[in-house]
Automatic annotation (TrEMBL), chains A, B, C, D:
Residues 23-371 form the UDP-N-acetylglucosamine 2-epimerase domain. Gene3D superfamilies: Glycogen Phosphorylase B. Keywords: Glycosidase, Hydrolase. It comes from the Bacteria. Pfam families: Epimerase_2. GO terms for molecular function: hydrolase activity, acting on glycosyl bonds. Its EC number is 3.2.1.183. This is UDP-N-acetylglucosamine 2-epimerase. The gene is neuC.
């Protein structure tokens, strides 16, 4: 009897963070993978992660449409409630031996509730980190609902233990996203033309002599300022006049603010040095990064993959607040001049090391092995 | 401008645990109470808490029907999901300055999500305790979603702090249920005839020379054994032949098991010494308890109110696992002989003290005062 | 390739109305049955139809929990909305070639919407009849959403055609419930002891020398008078002092009113001649009827099966308003004296014929054959 | 006591169809308007009807977010189910004396169910028409759930009566959209620059010497061909090289197909003569139409307003199937050459009359007056 492991992927970036673990589970002789794709991962306007997943050869056990339109805090809550209802059905039908919930996006708590309320052991990937908005609350609530904790760094492991989880349920596996980065570190050449392959909109920038990459998401609890915040970055990039690839934000309350900021700026300023993409295959994205001069924005990619790959990163604002950083990162506020300065400093920095903070490239296999060997239970009590 | 405090009551026992705080909020010159009654508190077959609430003179701002029939773990999860969707609407409309979620019933996390996702400061009442089933996970997840923690004992306060909450957001107010008990301690006479006033079913037992009270709820994660467990208690009580008032369980996954056990036993054994009630006004219930020989079962009332009132308590099974106990409590397993022995020991015990573990009778006022004086925020970060 | 026919059974009485058709579909060489059991058919307190279905050897493709507690018009609407959401998922997964919705219970429109909105041909069983409450609206709305109409009488066929449906999509198959009645007509002996086999509550009445059967459902649009209405019948029966088997009502807004009326009456009047059942296997129920003196209440069984079997029926109130009747039926208002009189008249009537209004006992096979031979489409336009 | 009339607007075009009736209800001395804005009417990417509604000075009683992302038939069904649940709450709270549901969009049945199941008299605007897809089913199902029918033409009135509705509940009021058109007929000058006022995307076409308007919606039951269909129109327009204003489609299953067709065509063909708009204030839109050479597509505006205004219309495909037409309309299939020919014929036609088929410009007042004077009931029975 194989152990049935049900993983729920609710967004494009979550897929990148779990992909090698999914592969390792699929290939493990004692495990059976039940893959559920849900939420914005199914939607065209958030990059159709589902297409990449199917192209990668995964069989999808269930698709769960649960995103309520509105992109405001109320619809975010209602999307989560709907997710609980739908995923309760799904788990009841699939009868998995364990369910995996990934990290800290708002809708991940739907997975946690639907599993734990049905007495299915819950595995939480990438708990124990620290940030600065609703993700912070969701991540730690996921930890308290989960029975097994597969975290991405030693610091995260310490934090989960302090929160009162049983030591024999907490493992530092590193982050599977680093497994992908590991392959790219070995094969770094930019073997495609980004604009030819992905289209996108905006100017046909001359990127071959070096370019920046920007990825800036709205910060939920600062909903009304999302537009103002992103304009600072847009102005900074526009004034620097360095060729830049810019990625649109995920679905989130406030993405309207950010997206609207970008649209407004494009129309009024018609920036000559920026080309916009909706999304990219994960490997292509990493290749784009490793060959870039600098990543700018507030994506966790700057903290994780870029630390491993040694890509200079300018991290803006509070979103990655207190996540463990490597030497590649410089933090700045939402301030045009500070952003410009930090970019210029980073692209000429010489002391950037490649570091092993979030894993050494073997996380996927470690996760599968722990799932196979650990006895899973849904009974737990705080240790103190 | 009054601070609008929205409290969500989802079940009869939760109302008892918050009633004096609701009154104190209502009467406080700086606060406005927005009372939401939801879930099983609206349903006749769980005791129509809503009727007591209205009789007590509270104005109900919104009623939220959210209980999905089925009484299994799947419907428990779906009820919670539906609760998130409905309460998101309610909070969006009421625009409270803070939302109160009470303790650890499964559906309380719906309140927590609907508030925190909409950036409304969340107040959690009675976090930091320890039990042994899904309540345990829900309680601590509520803590991680909440911004202000009003706990019921020093032990609970220590635990919430250890979990990483900011010290200036954690207050030991005691439990408002003790405020009710305080009044009864001063006025203990049994001033009504239980059977005349509440009807109920079963024999017209002769209770005036002493009686037992039983209240045994299903333990969610032991769903399939709920029936077997309650039969042990029924057999023990039946063999003792002491007049007994027995209260039906709340709505919970498994209540079917417990209720079915009771029904089966009644039909087959026709116990001569047991009278069954669905529910009772809180004050009447406390008067019944304070005049009883012993409380038997797994209700938290045995741990809290009975400790304050000095009522002997036989606590069965794991449901109150590791909650701080007074000298009134003896713990036993699901074992007929052990239950019988423990009851006989308790009703003749002489060393039972009245203790102040869960408050001194002023919790309601303390809670209102803290809500009025504390600056409420929805930004938080774990302290370590 | 077999044609996949998905039937949705949402309540115990609906199962009786479709059972022989389900069997015939299952056995048909060109059809595959996909049976979905939903709503109150899954719930213990409405008679656990699901158990009978499984005992009859049907494989259940999906179970859909969708009943929201409350038993008021709001929860009835919300149950229906939830049903649409859940059944949309179910049909999306099962990919049937046609979906069957049965008759006119409030939640049947959920089946109709979930199928027709997904461009799945919709088959409506038992349209074209006339009654007097929300069922009336639901039934005709189902007709307008449906692509194929399998009705139970010539009168019903005429009515569906008048409503503008294409003549080649309307067939009078009779009602499958008559197929069951046909078997009982041939084998009428009461081969079981009702109280021994089904338990129930109330007096151990002496029924062997003749008895009445009562089945009275709440009428939705007269929600507040459900309790008052049923009390008239209770008083009439109590005064007649003829041994009576009384069946509890279905889930419906107002069932609380009816049930509460019954409970109140039992407690206060302790009727000596009434025994109460929750439900009975369909064949046993028909045997009970065929051997009874008279059926009293407002069940459609009195109009249909009892017409075929020649069982005298006193039909109370508006619920069966304008349904085609046989000579077995007498109609009365909610009036104690009128009910008593009508019962006494019926049990001594000598002119009651067995009539073939709702089919001749071969409906199940007719339905399967039409489904196999008809080309199913989801395109339709009103004919005028 | 004013009669409380609750109208539910779920989409931008529905608002145009009801606006003057809303105003007349608001101004009527015996009526009180309760306006609910729901569904895509709240969403930016479908034109933010809510903003126009508020600019027009209406007070919105409730906003209901209910659109589930996905834009496929399954999410259309689930949106409807969610709408039932949410609107049930809304009506329960508002306690209207009647609810208005408008026309035949898929989600309008949610309004009908939520009202009729709660015994609130339901008023259906614009029943009795005939088209060719899911709208056809929804419209007639709305009729069967409704208690009062306010239809837009004599033909529609005849049809509703044939369907079995009581004659004293069916009134031909004309369509309120014609009231708006009436004002524009009197004041036809194009008093704004469309591109300056509304932006939009595409070429800055030279429209002052005459232009076409295109509005083509996906036809739900032909989901997969939506893209192919719209390409025919795009090619025809592109080849004609007449300046054209093109409006994006509404939210509907398939809008993705249509939108995707438009996007693809723009990228590949870069049409020089087309400018694209998302939406326009209703009066501005009518002004644009009355000054245009021809309307092309499948919008009901071509059948209704354009008949009244005498605007030549090329109606493509089955969407307006069998709706009563004036002399302004020519019908064509999805065929490039036929579309081109029809446009050329229409823009030189000389025999186009202004006709009064769908009202004479006083519908809003008629509707309000009928609502005030008619006794509203929720009891109905089919007449035959």
């Amino acid at each position: 009897m194989l152990k049935k492991i049900c993983a729920v992927v609710t967004a494009r970036p979550s897929y990148s963070r779990i992909k090698t673990a999914l592969r390792a589970i699929q290939n493990h002789s004692e495990l059976e993978l039940q893959l559920v794709v849900a939420g914005s991962a199914l939607l065209g306007r958030y990059g159709n992660a589902v297409d990449f997943i199917e192209q990668d050869g995964f069989v999808i056990a269930e698709k769960v449409y649960m995103v309520l339109e509105g992109e405001n805090p109320t619809s975010m809550a209602k999307t989560t409630g709907l997710g609980v209802m739908e995923l309760a059905n799904v788990f009841h039908k699939l009868q998995p031996d364990a369910v995996i919930t990934i990290a800290d996006r708002f809708e991940t708590i739907a997975t946690s509730i639907a599993a734990s309320y049905q007495n299915i052991p819950l595995v939480h990937i990438q708990g124990g980190e620290v940030t600065g908005n609703i993700d912070e609350k969701v991540r730690h609530a996921n930890t308290k609902l989960a029975d097994l904790h597969l975290v991405a760094s030693e610091e995260a492991k310490e934090r989960v233990l302090k929160m009162g989880e049983e030591p024999n349920t907490v493992f530092n596996t590193g982050c599977p996203s680093i497994d992908l980065a590991h392959y790219i570190k070995e094969n770094p050449e930019l073997n495609f033309d980004p604009i030819k392959k992905y289209g996108g909109v905006g100017e046909e920038i001359l990127w071959k002599d070096g370019y920046l990459v920007v990825m800036q998401h709205p910060v939920t609890t600062e909903y009304h300022s999302a537009k103002k915040d992103v304009l600072k970055t847009l102005e900074a990039i526009n004034e620097l006049q360095i060729p830049t690839f810019w990625f649109w934000p995920n679905v989130d309350a406030g993405s309207d603010g950010t997206s609207s900021g970008i649209r407004t700026f494009r129309e009024l300023q018609k920036p000559k040095n920026i080309h916009f993409f909706k999304n990219m295959e994960p490997n292509d994205f990493l290749r784009l990064l490793v060959n870039s001069k600098c990543l700018i924005g507030n994506s966790s990619v700057g903290i994780r993959e870029c630390s491993y790959l040694g890509v200079p990163t300018v991290n803006i604002g509070t979103r990655q607040n207190r996540r463990q950083r490597g030497s590649n990162v410089v933090d700045v506020a939402y301030d045009k001049e500070a952003i410009k300065e930090a970019i210029l400093e980073r692209i000429s920095a010489t002391n950037i090391k490649k570091e092993v903070i979030y894993g050494d490239g073997t996380s996927g296999n470690k996760i599968a092995e722990i799932l196979a060997k650990t006895s899973l239970s849904f009974h737990k009590t705080i240790v103190y």
